[in-house]
Amino acid sequence: MFTLKDQEKFWSKVSKGSITECWPWKGGTNGKNYGCFRDCCGTVWGAHRVAIILIKGHIAKGKVVRHLCNNSICVNPLHLAEGSQADNVGDYLKTGVYPKHPVKEPSYTQEIKILNRCVIQNMAKKLLD
Ligand SMILES: [Zn+2]
């Protein structure tokens, strides 16, 4: 879906830290603190969605990408999770905050634990090279 050039361009606009830190997007935003990425075809994507696609290959149909760290400018794939619009609405009803999708600390640690160690190592190797 994204060319190698797109991928290089994308990661060059990310301020990468350790795998537990937030990785702020350095490129343009949509004015609401969500990163925007323009691919070689001129299509503009949400930067956080691109991060998930580059790691997982796709986003399941109808799914939205949520920030587990509640930092909308962050594109660390480990801080992002696919969810349904219903999850978002659930977050909104629970917290009254929208669309930042806050998730409490336990869910965040759970998500990290779910990711198998090998996947994290491979990802870190690939991204931090
Ligand atoms: Zn983050």
Give your account of this protein's structure.
This protein is α+β, with helices and mostly antiparallel strands. The chain has one domain (4-128). The chain has helices at 4-12, 47-56, 85-95, 105-114, 117-128, and strands spanning 36-38, 44-46, 64-67, 80-83. The longest helix is centred in the last third of the chain and has 12 residues, at 117-128. The two termini are 22 Å apart. 19% of the residues are buried. Bound molecules: zinc ion (ZN). Zinc ion is lined by residues 22, 69, 71, 74, 76, 79. Residues 22, 69, 71, 74, 76, 79 line the site of zinc ion.
What is the compact description of this entry?
By secondary structure, the protein is α+β, with helices and mostly antiparallel strands. It has five helices and four strands.
Q: What is the element layout, followed by pairings?
A:
Layout: H1 4-12, E1 36-38, E2 44-46, H2 47-56, E3 64-67, E4 80-83, H3 85-95, H4 105-114, H5 117-128
Rg over C-alpha atoms, rounded to the nearest angstrom: 14 Å
Largest sheet: spatial strand order: 1-2
User: Overall pLDDT, averaged?
Assistant: 80
- Report low-confidence residues grouped into runs of 5 or more: 98-116
Gap between N and C termini, in Å?
22 Å
Percentage of helical residues? 40-55%
Order of helices and strands: HEEHEEHHH
The hetero molecules present are:
zinc ion
**How many domain regions?**
1
Tertiary shape: globular
> What would you call the structural class?
alpha+beta
Number of strands: 4
Number of helices, counting only DSSP H or I runs of 4 residues or more: 5
Q: What fraction strand?
A: 5-15%
Main beta sheet strand tally, sense and closure: 2 strands, antiparallel
